[in-house]
Design a protein that fits this description.
By secondary structure, this protein is of the alpha+beta class. It has helices at about 1-10, 40-55, 65-85, 90-110; strands spanning about 15-20, 25, 30-35, 120, 125-130, 135, 160. It has one domain (about 1-160). It contains four helices and seven strands; from the N terminus they run αβββαααββββ. A four-stranded antiparallel beta sheet has the order 4-5-6-7, with no helix packed on it. It has a three-stranded mixed beta sheet with strand order 1-3-2, with helices on one face. The longest helix has 22 residues, at about 65-85. The structure holds zinc ion (2 copies).
Length: about 160
């Protein structure tokens, strides 16, 4: 993995990589976190995916409906990088990740009170149920927090009185 990072940094010196527990792109600090302990090819794929977010300069302040589109774009960028580096990313893996992401977005949109699927409010933080008028807050959107292997996708919490 270090060899890949070195090669990417030669081409994109503006990118900053930091070793951490998991793979993610932090738009606030403009750093790409990666799990150094990960030695399988999935780790390399995640690294390229997060690099994709970084190169496309994705920010956190997006409505949920936009997020899936950004995930797809990051994977497209990851595919490009992989072919430049001389390997390929398994398509099933990409589809799995996108499915998991879809599930996560879906769960955020379900009313915790009456289980109706709802639309996010314009502030991008709250959902409001058009059926029972419950309002709930969702965590700040973050890229790629969920993968198939993680069975329990962290659910959103706080419910406010309508
Ligand atoms: Zn409801
Ligand atoms: Zn992502």
């Amino acid at each position: 993995m270090q060899a890949i990072i070195t090669k990417i940094n030669q081409r994109y010196p503006e990118l900053t990589y930091k070793s951490g527990d998991q793979f993610f792109w932090s738009p606030e600090t403009r750093e790409i976190y990666y799990n150094q302990a990960s030695t399988n090819q999935n780790g390399n794929w995640s690294l390229l995916h997060e690099t994709g977010h970084a190169l496309l300069q994705h920010t956190n302040y997006q409505a949920d409906v936009e997020l899936l589109r950004l995930e797809v774009a990051a994977w497209e960028k990851a595919r490009e990088l992989a072919s430049w580096l001389g390997f390929a990313i398994d398509e099933d893996h990409i589809q799995d990740c996108l499915d998991t992401y879809r599930d996560w977005l879906y769960k955020r949109s379900i009313c915790p009170n009456c289980h109706t699927k709802c639309l996010q409010q314009d502030d991008k933080i709250h959902y409001r149920c058009f059926n029972c008028h419950t309002i709930w807050r969702v965590s700040t959107s973050r890229f790629c927090r969920a993968y198939r292997s993680t069975k329990d996708i962290p659910q959103t919490a706080k419910v406010f009185d309508a």
